Structures are given as C-alpha cells and as structure tokens.
Amino acid sequence: MISEGIVNEKRVEVFLLCLKLIDSRDNSQTVIRLSKKNLFNKLIHSIACAVLHLLFTWKARIWDYFNKQRSTSPLDVSDQTLDDAMLQMDQDILLEVQVDNEPSRSSLTIAGGPALSNGHTTGYRFNQYPGSSFGSTFMDMDDGYDSYNTAKKGEKGGLAGLQNLGNTCFMNSALQCLVHTPDLAQYFLGDYSDEINTENPLGMHGELALAFGDLLRKLWSSGRAAVAPRAFKGKLARFAPQFSGYNQHDSQELLAFLLDGLHEDLNRVKQKPYIEMKDSGGRPDEEVANECWKNHKARNDSLIVDVFQGQYKSTLVCPVCSKVSITFDPFMYLTLPLPSTVTRTMTVTVFYANGSGLPMPFTVTLMKHGCCKDLILALSTACCLKIDEGLLLAEVYNHQIFRFFENPAELISSIKDDEHIVAYRFDRKQGGKIKLEIVNRWQEKSASDYLKGSERKLFGAPLVTYLEEEHLSGADIDIAVSKLLSPLRRTYSSAKAHGGKENGFLPEVIDELSNSHNESVETAELEDLCSRELSFQLSLTDERISSCKPIQKDSILKPGKHIKVLLDWTDEVHELYDPSYIKDLPVVHKTGFTVKKTRQEAISLFSCLDAFLTEEPLGPDDMWYCPQCKEHRQATKKLDLWMLPDVLVFHLKRFSYSRYLKNKLDTFVNFPILNLDLSKYMKSKDGESYVYDLFAISNHYGGLGGGHYTAYAKLIDENRWYHFDDSHVSPVSEGDIKTSAAYVLFYRRVKSKTKAEMAETSQGHCC
Predict the structure, then answer these.
(1) Three-state SS string across 290-317, please?
(2) Which string of DSSP letters, residue by residue, matches 81-143?
(3) Which of 7, 84, 177, 432 has the fewest Cβ atoms nearer than 10 Å?
(4) Per UniProt, which keywords does this protein have (predicted)?
C-alpha cells in the first residue's frame, strides 16, 4: 500500500517503477525495478548491485537520458523518494563513473551520501517551511540552477523549445503561452517564495507553482536548448490525474487548470472569510460591482487575480414575474462561441387554420439556445404574419399531432433535426376554445379491395382549426373540414364524380364545390349544402385512434378542448382535392452527410464577442431559483463586460459535441493583432481605455481526438514573433500568425497610448 495525492489516498502499487540504466562506459543497458516510494539512495545501491565491478571508492553521477540526450545537470541524491524525484515509468537514466581522482564538478558517492562540489548549490533558494514537503520539492527540482548561466553570450532567453514526451504538444503549447506572458515571466524570475501558500486546501501545497516557476526559469535561461518538462508533467499528473499518461488533451482545459491551480498556490489569503452575497436590490451598478469585487478579493488575492481576472455583469430575468437579478461575477478567460455554433437553421411548414391558403414551408435562422417564442417571432417575420394573427407550433409524428408547443419558454433544443414541425396560422379574434384536429386516412388499393374491412392507413399532415361553438354537431364539423380543404381543390373534376351520388357525395355538391376554385365559399352557402347530407366520411376518434365512431349530420359531439376526427379520403374526395400539398413534410434540418465539407466563411473576433454577449434563455438543467416566485424558472440571461484584466484570454469554441455528432470548426476567425479596442463593449463608465495587443496564440491543427498543438509567442523586447512547435523554435512574420488553427488568444493591455497611436484602429490589422 502506498499513499498518493493531497489527501494521502491509499493505493496498491501493482507495477513497480521500471528504469532503464545505461552505462556510459560501454552503453550496456540494465533494467531496475523499485517501488516509487523507495528513497533515492535505494536507487544508488541498486545500481551498485546491478552494474558489476563498481568499487565503493569510485564516484558516479546519474543523468536523465531522455531521447538519448543527457540532461543539463545530474539527478539529485537527497533523502527523497523516487516519486518525489519525478522519475517516470521506463525512463532512461545514464550512469557516469568517475575513476580515482578524475576531477568532477558535481559528483555522487555510490554509498549514497551527498558530495556536493563547489558551485553546485543554487544562488536562488527558497525558505523551507516547517511541516511542509518543500524539503523534497526544492531538491527534486534542483536540476542544476547553474544551467541558467549556460546560454551562450549574446543569446536572449525565451527561445527554448519543449521536448514532446509523448502526445504532450497540448501541454507545450499552453506552457509556451504562459511562459511568454510578460507579467508571469517577471514574477517567476524573481523571488516569490514569500507568496507560496502551503495551507490552502484548494491548492497543491505550492508544489504546482514551484514546478511551473522552475520550468519557466529553465526556458528563459537555457538559450535555444530544448527542455524536457518531465518534472513538471510529473507534478501535473499527481495533482490532475486527468492529464496523466500520454493521451492527447485540450490545451485550453490545461490552461484553465493551471491558472486556477497557480492562483490557489499563490493565494495571499491564508484564511478565507465567509461572505454572504447580497442581491442588487435596485442599487446602482457601480455600487454592486465594487461590493462584489471587494468580496471576491477578500477570498482570492494572487498574481493570477491581479493579471488575468476581470468582471462581467450578469442579468437574469424571470419569464413569469419579470423579477430582475443582477450580479457581478469574476472571470479568468472568455469562451467565445463561433456564430456558426450559436445559430440554428430550422424549416417549419405553416398551415392556414381558416383554410385561406396553401401550406408553405419556411426556413428561418435563430439562436441555438433560443426558445419557442423566438421561433414563432422568426416565422412571423418570414410568413408576414398580421398583427391580429397568431401561430400554434406542433410536432407531427405518424401523420398526427404528437405534441403542441404551447409553452413559449420551451427551448428549441428539444426539437431534433429529423422531426417534422408545423405551425398553424389562426386569427386571434376568431380563435375559439375548442381545437379541432383532422387526421387524414385512405384505403389501400388491392386485388381484393372489394372485401370489406381492408386496412386503412394514415397519410399526410393533420389539419387544425379552432371552433367557437360549445355544442357542436356533425354538420359543424363537416363545414370546418370543407373550409380547411378549400385551398386543395383541383381546377377540374372527373366526369365520374358527376355521375351520381356515391359514398355520401351529392352531385350538386360536387359541381358547386369544384367550380368555385378561386372563390371563397361563404359559411352560409356551406351550411345550406350540408343541411341535406354530410359532404365527407368523418369519424370521431380518441388520442391514440384506438376507436372510431362515425359522425352523422345530427350527431352531437361532447364538449372538450380537443376534438380529433378522422377524414377518409374516398375516390370522390381525391377527384376534388389534391392531397399532395399535405404530403411529404420537410424535416427541421436535413443533414448533408454526402455533401463535401467546404471552408466556412471567415468571421471576425467581434462577431464572436457579440454572440457571447447575446441574451439567451437558461437551459433546463441550469434553472434559476426566482426569489419572488419561490420556484426554479428558465430565466433569460444577459452578460455584459464590466471590468477587463491586464491580460485578456479569448478561448474560441471550435469543438462542438452533441448526442450523435462531434465536430471541429475550422472557421477562420479574423482577429486584430494590434489595437483591439473593446471600449464599446464596456458597461462601466470609468473613462478608461480598453486597448489590447496580441502576444501569444495556442494553435490546434487537425480534427477531434488527435491533431497537433503549436504556439505563436511574441518576445516583447525584440518585438518579434516566434513559432514554438515542441522542441523546434523558429521566427515567423507577423502576417503569418493568423490562421484557422488559432484556438486560444492572449492579449495584453496597452497601458499608455497616445491619441495618434490609438487612431490606428484594428481595421488595418484585420485585413
């Protein structure tokens, strides 16, 4: 049993730590297996036993030998465990033996005792906190701080690459962006030991901050020699198991963890006070915003908060009682949706509930997280709905109404792309309380169609209208059906239809209806026609169509909110009416699987920000508790920028996931490199200028589940951009850093700008 993690979780060590020892004298290899909780001295004794003919009077050094390249300094031999020393499974280590009195700058005795030579101690040392694990932490990261001085004269720091340890390009990309953040570089190159928080239960006892600071120092002092971030990855895997192993991960998810972890490790607040949040209560926004930020800083105060955190205004409105709740929340980065990911195209067929026109499909585009109210508004504009008209949304399944969308707040996300949605256009003034649904049915033709009781099948879209009368008769239903079918009348009818009375149709009725194609039949005339006999074969049924009762002229229907009637399309009805208009309803959205994927139209960073700040309803799993209604409500939410940090990070949401599809958007986002002015988006009236310059980009190439990450970073002192592709670093022109692979953008506030410089807007850099 071994203990791991912050809470000392007990685990069974099934696989021992396997190390590959390479003897520098003859390049022979020896495999050594030890528990990761063994002390480092145990490794030295194992080497002495494994490699024969070593004398205890000789001295040896052990080096990290990743990719057959010796590390810049030997591994330490303190009384720490192999786990603390960040030794990994199957790691290559190199053994160098010093014979007799051969001079050595830094040597280790085989007996395991430390033999620190002149100059190996670091000039930059942390204080050891009593009761902490810093004793081992500092030593395991003492990779030879003299290496900071190994850069060649004339070479500037910050141009070192990071070796790929196996699908760690996502980590390398994120680290290069953070390492080249000027505020972080300046901080971690100085003495920050006094700000390490070892008592924070939400942190990593300061170990993550120390590991990151050590790596940053190496990258800024090793010239152009690539650094193997093995020690940092070991710490990362220890405190964030989701990043352990060698699978590909998301650079933005790692960035989010690192920023949050560094904040907790560097939090200046040792004991977080309990603060009860207050509602805005109609107070001025400035007062509420300052109060929220003060409360936040009382619990969270670190370099990360100073540099990366801003504040936005969140407005929630209850759809029932219109209660408005305003809060001001901190943010570390802004996740911007691409406009193509926040909108949805939907096709809906609109029917006339009064039979005044033919059904017509309309395709509209609206916000993906919108509600039925938004869909009705979009359809109203598309079909030129009159002021006194309304729309009733419904889903058609198996040729009958499956459900009505009578709740305007219902999210359109509940509507799938392969469903059939219709909207019934009705007059608000004439709309009654009784809803009449007409389901169409016809009898299949066969060789034995003369047999009675042959199967009848449903077809087409159901027709819906409203009736005002409380006491309905069969004649009233017949008149309503005649109105609904009137737009479907053919321009001519077969002579067979005039031959006589068949299946309940009167010849004079057929003549009169067929000759009035482009004329509306008055209600009085229809009542006169149907006073003799019903024009159609109608049957009263239930919701599941499990029973049918024929409707006669004098039948009295029981009152109810919803009446469902079957209409049998006989040969005579086919002669008079064309059913093709109600057949083959289009689906909401037809996915073109066979269509080749084309490059999507370029969009601007500003359009992404507009989409982020657009008002939208909350999801059903994110309901808001309304203090006035005392219930959870699907409120509408609106975000506004209130305060921006010195370093502003934009995460472009390129990856989308649904139940059936996973997709990456390769849309080219046109973003400014210089003079990104966000003043117009700010709701606070503090008079400050919010102008930013780009200094780093995390790129992702390829598709889901793989691909490759790189980074672009700007050396501020040189005013020059570089491309960091794992261990390979090369200069790149400013005009080449804009690509469709841009995933995370890092901007830095321009603190002093003259009016002449600010006149050079970002338009010139967006072209």
Answers:
(1) HHHHHHHHHHCCCHHHHHHCEEEEEEEE
(2) BTTTTT--TTEEEEEEEE-TT---SSEEETTS-EE--TT-S-SS-PPPPTTSSHHHHHHHT-S
(3) 7
(4) Hydrolase
Q: Note whether 31 and 19 are within 8 A (CB).
A: yes
Q: How far apart (Å, rounded) are the C-alpha atoms in residues 209 and 317?
A: 41
DSSP 354: T
- Which residues have a Cβ under 8 Å from the Cβ of 74 and sit 6 or more positions away? 61, 62, 63, 106, 108, 144
Structure-block tokens of residue 92: 């290559």
Distance, in Å, from the CA atom of 99 to the CA atom of 54, rounded to the nearest integer, reads: 10
Three-class SS state of 285: helix
- Angle, CA 531 vertex, CA 528 and CA 532 arms, to 5°: 115
Query: What does the block give as tokens for 619?
Result: 């999801």
Structure tokens, 497: 């239809």
What's the CA gap between 187 and 465, in Å, rounded?
72
For the beta carbon of residue 352, count every other beta carbon within 10 angstroms: 21
Q: In this structure, what is the dihedral angle of CA atoms 47, 48, 54, 56, given to the nearest 10 degrees?
A: 130
- For the question of residue 318 being annotated catalytic, the response is no
CA distance 664 to 668: 12
Q: Please give the torsion angle defined by the CA atoms of residues 605, 611, 613 and 619, in that order, rounded to the nearest 10 degrees.
A: -140
* Amino acid (1-letter code) at residue 430: Q
Distance between CA atoms of residues 136 and 142, nearest Å: 10
Give me 369's structure tokens. Answer: 């997280």
CA separation, residue 613 to residues 312, 336, 426 (Å): 10, 9, 35
Q: What share of the chain is helix, strand, coil (3-state, %, to 5)?
A: 25, 30, 45
d(CA 549, CA 687): 75
From CA 674, how far away is CA 614, in angstroms rounded?
25
DSSP H or E stretch at residue 13: none
Residue 66 to residue 632: CA distance in whole angstroms:
56
Beta bridge partners of 310: 331
**Contact of 160 with 233, CB cutoff 8 Å:** no
Report the half-sphere exposure of 717 (CA within 13 A, side-chain side): 8
- Across the range 741-748, mean pLDDT stands at 96
C-alpha span between 504 and 422 (Å, rounded):
31
At 157, list the tokens.
């720091």
Among 281, 310, 272, residue whose Cα is nearest residue 293? 310
CA–CA gap between residue 442 and residue 399 (Å, rounded): 12
Contact 196, 732 (CB under 8 A): no
What does the alpha-carbon distance between residue 271 and residue 718 come to, in Å, rounded to a whole number? Answer: 42
Give the C-alpha separation, 50 to 53, whole Å: 10
Q: What is the pLDDT of residues 9-54, one digit of tens each?
A: 556 666 677 788 887 777 777 777 777 777 766 666 566 555 544 4
pLDDT tier, 704 (very low <50, low <70, confident <90, very high otherwise): confident
Q: Of 169, 292, 372, 608, which one is the catalytic site residue? A: 169
Q: Residue 45 has what pLDDT?
A: 58
Mark whether 708 is an active-site residue. yes
Query: pLDDT tens, 230-279?
Result: 889 988 888 888 888 888 889 999 999 999 999 999 999 988 889 888 87
The pLDDT tens digits of the residues spanning 655-679 come to 876 555 567 888 899 999 999 999 9
Neighbours of 552 (CB within 10 A): 13
For the chain, the residue count is 767
Q: Which two tokens stand for residue 762?
A: 């970002």
**pLDDT of 740:** 92
Burial of 764 (0-12, 13-18, 19+ CB in 10 A): exposed
Contact 164, 727 (CB under 8 A): yes
Residue among 548, 589, 708, 766 flagged as catalytic: 708
Which residues fall within 8 angstroms of residue 210, CB to CB, at 6 or more apart?
126, 134, 137, 138, 141, 196, 265
User: Quick one: residue 500, left, alpha or beta (phi over 0 = left, psi -120 to 50 = alpha)?
Assistant: left
